[in-house]
Amino acid sequence: MAQFNIPARKKVYNYEIETFLGIDLTSAPNNVNISRSPNCPNMIRDTIGKVRKRDGYTTRRTYADQINGVHFHGTDKLVHSGENLYKDGETPTLLSSTMKDGFSVSVLMNGDLFILDGKKMVTYDGSFSDITGKVPLILIGRGPSGGGTVYEAVNLISPYMQVGFLGTAGTVIYQLPHTGLDATDVTAKKMDGSGVFVDLVEDTDFTVDRTAGTVTFDVAPGDSPITGEDNVYITYSKTISGYSDRINKCDTCILYGVNGSRDRLFVTGNPDYPNYDYYSELSDPTYFPDINYSVLGNKAIVNYSIVNELLVTHKAGEDNNSNAVLREGVLTDDGVAFVLRGSYQTTGALAKHSFSVLENEPLFVSVENNISAITPSDVLGERLSQERSYYITEALKGLTLDDSYSCTYDGFYFLTTGTDIYILDGTQYSYERNRPYSTRQYECYKWPGLNARLLWEDNGLWFGTSDGKICEFVSGQMDDDGEAISAYWDTPELDGQSFANKKTFTYVGVRIASAPKTGIKISARIKGLWSEKVPYNLEAMYFSFAEVYFDSFTFSTDSTPHTLGQKIKIRGEDKVQFRFENSQINEPFGLYKALIEYTESGKYRK
After folding, report:
1. What does pTM read for this prediction?
2. Which one of 12, 90, 142, 360 has the lowest number of neighbouring Cβ atoms within 10 Å?
């Protein structure tokens, strides 16, 4: 009887991807974890372990110049475009044309919005105005010829000040503590015999010698009718060179106070005093006493964080790496003090607008061009910074990030570099053995080519561009101003059980989210070139009366995720990458699972 030798069937291996995570731009493509992608533009976390195409954007408004800031006061939105500040609307209202053409920041306190742009601090309470500033009572109990007790400090942001005098019988000339007064009117009031103050008018009730700093009354105010209580108050303006610029040239701020309360405005960023910061009086950003400042190290202050109710002041790079200075607001016998409480050993901060809090963790771009966090060590109680952006750090190192800008929204940290947006996912993280001194690394994503200059949250994620556009990412929208979004997820390089063996890839299958209109194209990269292996497939669509697309009609009513699979034939290759793609307009795209089957044979020889 004839005998036949039937060859043994080749063993079938497979790559099964159960979890889809983010991008890894730091590892070599053949070293990327099977759950991550060396390239997945315009994808984002859907549910944990699944990804989808990002939402598209719509341009809501276009201004003439680059967007430098967007600020909110109640329902009013203020847009800083170029040198102009507008109240946003269908027909924007111009509020100012003298802003600095650079980034601006703002805080809201006591119902007023305070805006800093590095040129002049201004305010908005429903109407726009320069800051008048509190008039401090700098001396009390002063005699007509001098003396007195210091009561309040001079206001850096205002040239006006007031002095209280104890009048004496017959004396008409009162000497102010300053000479060379400004030309603005001097005002005065005196207490009458019944203890009521009466306003007096310059050149009617008194005259002023501004050079000498004296006020001469037509009628001597006399002794105070109330023993020990000042009976004359004189208010005048004395511009001290450089004082107002110490605040006006600041472009960075935070609210902080005693016991961690947010009741004083701290400002910094003045290029003339880069290692200085200044803080306002309690609940009054119009009053910056000239004694309320700190000098911290030698390098520039970049920005602030708050950790465990301590104010963390981030430096640009001190020689001893004490680049995060800790201060605490405390009450003392002399009033309020912000005392040093140590420092964090950390790399310097680079980008002042990269500071945002993700899941209670302050993040910022460091001088090493990574995204770092300030965190107390859980084990040793040490204070240090930890990298959080391992999977995109190598890409960030090749960029200029000084003007990078961040915000947090919906559990993500978004950082725009002016062209691309990089994203950290606060809900998905892992321990990376290549960064042993960091407790975790967040999953990352990249949205390229969006021209976003700055980002903000306003019941959704928005961005402003360098050409004056205000754009909103719209939930569920699958186009960018009518243009298709190109989104795909590449596998790592798949080189099988042994990199040296020849592989034959025989099958590829995916499970994708279903939708009234969706599909997938699958390509493979062989010897460096991409080619289509599974043409665009619409089988994941389901029928919906609300969304009928006659160009791709289906009667299926199955809205659960769909599995699509197809035999392929890729022979004799040492490695292959696969791409799962949807770049169709108005189509969502969600990846849930993937399966790739292959066999191996003899050694690969090119």
Report:
1. 0.92
2. 90
